[in-house]
Amino acid sequence: MSAEATDPGAPVRKRSRPRIDLRRLGRVALLGPVSRDRLPDAIGHVAEAHRAHHPDADLSLLHRAYVLAESSHRGQMRKSGEPYITHPLAVTLILAELGAETTTLTASLLHDTVEDTEVTLDQVREQFGKEVCYLVDGVTKLEKVDYGAAAEPETFRKMLVATGDDVRVMSIKLADRLHNMRTLGVMRPEKQARIAKVTRDVLIPLAERLGVQALKTELEDLVFAILHPEEYERTRALIAAASAQPDASGAASHQNPLAAVAENVATVLREAGIPAEVLIRPRHYVSVHRVRAKRGELRGTDFGRLLVLVGEDADCYAVLGELHTCFTPVISEFKDFIAAPKFNLYQSLHTAVVGPDGAVAEVLIRTHRMHKVAEAGVIALGNPYASDSGFAPQPAEPADGERADPTRPGWLSRLLAWQRSAPDPDTFWTTLRADLAEDREITVFRTDGGTLGLPAGASCVDAAYAQYGEAAHHCVGARVNGRLTTLGTMLSDGDTVQLLLVEDATSGPSPDWLDHARTPAARIAITGWLDAHPEDTRGPHTGRSAERRREPHSHESTVPGRTRPAGPTARAVVDRPDAPVRLAGCCTPAPPDAVTGFVVSGGTVAVHRLECAAAARMQSVGRAPVPASWGDTDGCRVTLVAESFGRTRLLADLTEAIAAADAAIISATVEPPSEQRVRHTYTLQLPDAAGLPALMRAMRDVPGVYDVRRTQHPAATG
To answer: Per residue, what are the HEC states of 21-51?
Structure first.
């Protein structure tokens, strides 16, 4: 089945296999038993498609599954008037043509037996084994009698959980929905619209994420026809008008410029000695509609793309080199999805070239293997759990008995994680649709060497909850690529992120975190915490901490209850007898700092640290330095600036750390918070100058504090 079929009601099939009349096959299936030494005609078409991909497949399992499905559904009819068995046959044929392995096809034949007949899961398990039973159970709907309006969202929740253990569950569901969409015309218009919307919001994004482009593109066209009939008809007319046949000589006419470019490309590759197959790949309806919406006027080459298939990865780049040498490339259109595959397994080189007549043609370059995966996604993997599947051996069975799935992508793991926290079916259903609407993924690196897969547009808040779960409630900041930043910072693909957490059980997220959270896991966790702590709806990161809310609303607030009488400051000695000496307030020098002095107003010598910017300025304008050193160093006065993220009890914890160092607080100011950061400035009296480094280390160890430094204020030089 081609992902580029232009008629959603009539998908393109291989010429060697005639179009199958499912209505006729359904009647044949009801004509009576067949001999045991051959397959019934109805299942024979499935067997033929299956053997095309798996020549050594054992068909006996399919035969037994068909017999059970046909007998259990006998007498049931579809709304279209066809025997019901035509539906599981059609679903199985779709999967067989995409290359699904025998177990998937067996479960597909039986996928409605437990739901719609007297067959039980125990019978399926007994006759076909645990794997087939698991797949059938995964796609079996929950009863509306038991779940009411929640039946549909809870069915999808059940199906997604089952997909987490076996991606083949979703493969069957997607094929099932495709055949139902193909035959949706017998339904009432309002029901058609409802099913089409669910298909658009949930099934199509899932098909995209699992890489099953053949199913995704046909589903898109079918949904397009139902939800946007006028645009669909307009697009259909455009495609029909552009489908001019070659002229009598067999050459491509002026109405088919893509064929001319394809011929030139094939000639170039043939002369370069690169074995390649050059095909014209028609765009499907939705793709043409999107191009028209983007460009306004369609060019003749916009109705399709060139597909170049080669044998090896290296040949892809050889083809690219020849095309860019012999044609004018459109550099902005080049993308390398071989070196950096998409998150849904897709690999290909994309480029665009300008033909001799000025026509611009998009070109896809891939190997035959890449093409199979591009069309069928996870279905092309066969049985991903078999030892010969090409994947690394599975780890040992987890203690809880759940099977480790080497094919589970990051987005599915995240989905399975947050759905456990979704409190009700409505929240799950709404969040699922929003999550699936994010169609791009980025990878960020953790400082411990691990990686995080996140949707495009995710912030540090999302990274925190992806890495730490509910422990991220205590996150106070982040470093991105080594630079300190706020939690609301948006991440880019390839960033390195370090999350900063505090060990404080009372801290929690702020309501404004919801403005930056893109992932359902983050939003659900934040909302849950805020609902459980209504008394602190402002959150610790939105402004003043609990202590600061009790302080005056001035630019600078003196910390109460922490000051002590000031003792003597460290004595600086200068090489100028009888001159008054003072320590500069701009850099607050203290032993054992290297110091220098400058004469200022009134003949006083101001002592600065050697690296002080004010001292450098005075020396640069010709002011002569006065040699200075330390005399009595029993005590010293120093001003420290602490940079931190806001949280409850931060002020108390800092002042306790200062008190533990036996330092007296002469004064303290706390500036208004800016982007969740708070700056504290302390002037301290230390009993021993040698204790300053230890005090600064103790202050840096306070959770939420990311920097402590000596002051470096601008100062007058006069």
So the answer is: CHHHHHHHHCCCCCCCCCCCHHHHHHHHHHH
pLDDT of residue 244: 56
Residues 6+ apart with CB under 8 A from 302: 283, 288, 291, 292, 295
How many CB atoms within 10 Å of residue 176?
22
Within the chain, how many helices (H) and strands (E) appear? Answer: 26, 20
Share of the chain above pLDDT 90, in %: 31
Catalytic residue of the set 115, 165, 263, 512: 115
In whole angstroms, give the CA distance from residue 73 to residue 76.
Answer: 6
Integer Cα distance of 347 and 670 in angstroms: 55
* Spatial CB neighbours of 662, under 8 Å, sequence gap ≥ 6: 686, 687, 691
- Respond yes or no: is residue 116 known to be catalytic: yes
**Candidates 7, 116, 263, 643; catalytic one:** 116
- The span from the CA of 513 to the CA of 453, in Å, is 20
Question: Exposure of 96 by Cβ count < 10 A (0-12 exposed, 13-18 middle, 19+ buried)?
Answer: buried
- 146 in catalytic set: no
User: What does pTM read for this prediction?
Assistant: 0.64
Please report the sign of the dihedral spanned by the C-alpha atoms of residue 656, residue 659, residue 663, residue 668.
Answer: positive
pLDDT tens track for 274-286: 999 999 999 999 9
Q: Are strands 335-336 and 349-354 parallel, antiparallel or unpaired?
A: antiparallel
Q: Provide the mean pLDDT of the chain.
A: 79
Model confidence over 59-87: pLDDT tens digits?
999 999 999 999 999 889 988 888 899 99
**Upper half-sphere CA count for residue 225 (Cβ side, 13 Å):** 19
* Pair 489, 689: CB distance under 8 Å: no
Residues in CB range of 500: below 8 A, 6 or more apart: 475, 476, 477, 478, 479, 645, 706
Q: Identify the segments of the chain with pLDDT beneath 70.
A: 1-42, 145, 244-255, 384-410, 439, 504-506, 535-570, 601-602, 632-635, 674-676, 712-718
CA 701 to chain centre: 34
Q: Which residues contact 409 (CB under 8 A, 6 or more apart)?
A: 209, 343, 344, 453
Among residues 647, 596, 663, the alpha carbon closest in space to that of 623 is found at 596
